[in-house]
Design goal:
mainly alpha, 7 helices, 4 strands
């Protein structure tokens, strides 16, 4: 008895077992659109120092789907023994898309690194606010690129701490010589009056004044008051007592001398 074992993605057609290829993630129109977007974005990104906006937030996910579908088509053609010009053109198309995707990813990573470094260094170089680079609109970029950019910011901050960047740029003033400005309790940030975040960054933290009056410390000047308030014995009494004692001693000596002379 002959036993037929079917593998996943296969079906029986008559007496033959036909292996079915997995379903494609993009149809013909979607694949053509994603390919055009890839080539257009690569041309626009060339020569730019900041990452340009992507045509869609799931850009890289769709590029992966496009390459996956092309790879499945190539495998299907090799499985049935097709080695003609159509297979060669498909392989060339796959290699070209991979090259453009790699080139675009490299350009965008360099642009994001340059943007993050310039933004961080300018923030500590005492430059005017209007000279800062515009923040990136992450609604126009891929989520994976946003995660990459934030990781860059963390590494740049670690570098600045390691080399004491603030001390190099600001000198003694950067070591805390200039105290932070303190505001009255109840002071609000300007962002509180607007629903839009113009800079893309949260407002800096405010330092508030203390409501409670500071306690005055006891200084050395109070020692004089304590000495003046202390109760000291009356010196006049001691002086008069000493004079009385001396007078009695002199009288006693004089009486003794007179008695001797009489004898």
């Amino acid at each position: 008895m002959c036993e037929t074992i079917l593998v996943k993605g296969s079906r029986i057609v008559g007496d033959r077992v036909t292996i079915m290829s997995p379903p494609r993630e993009l149809d013909s129109a979607q694949a053509h659109e994603v390919e055009e977007q890839l080539f257009t974005t690569n041309r626009q990104q060339s020569g730019r120092n900041v990452p340009i906006s992507l045509p869609r937030t799931d850009f890289w996910e769709n590029v992966k789907k496009l390459l996956s579908d092309i790879d499945l088509d190539i495998q299907d053609m090799l499985r049935v023994g097709a080695t003609g010009i159509r297979l060669q053109n498909l392989q060339k198309r796959q290699a070209n898309i991979r090259r453009i995707a790699s080139d675009l990813a490299r350009k965008r990573m360099v642009a994001m690194m340059q943007h993050a470094a310039s933004q961080s260094m300018r923030a500590t170089a005492n430059t005017a606010k209007n000279q800062e680079l515009p923040s990136l609109d992450w609604h126009r970029h891929d989520p994976e690129e946003k995660a990459f950019y934030h990781a860059l910011q963390i590494q740049i901050d670690r570098f600045k701490m390691g080399v004491d960047w603030n001390g190099m740029q600001n000198g003694i003033a950067g070591e805390g010589g200039i105290s932070q400005i303190r505001h009255a309790p109840g002071t609000m940030q300007l962002d509180s009056f607007s629903n839009k975040n113009l800079t893309g960054n949260p407002p800096p933290a405010l330092a508030f004044e203390d409501d409670k009056p500071e306690k005055m410390e006891v200084t050395d000047a109070d020692e004089e008051e304590r000495f003046s308030d202390a109760e000291w014995p009356d010196l006049d009494e001691h002086i008069h007592a000493d004079l009385d004692d001396k007078k009695r001693i002199q009288e006693t000596s004089s009486s003794a001398l007179k008695m001797k002379m009489r004898i």
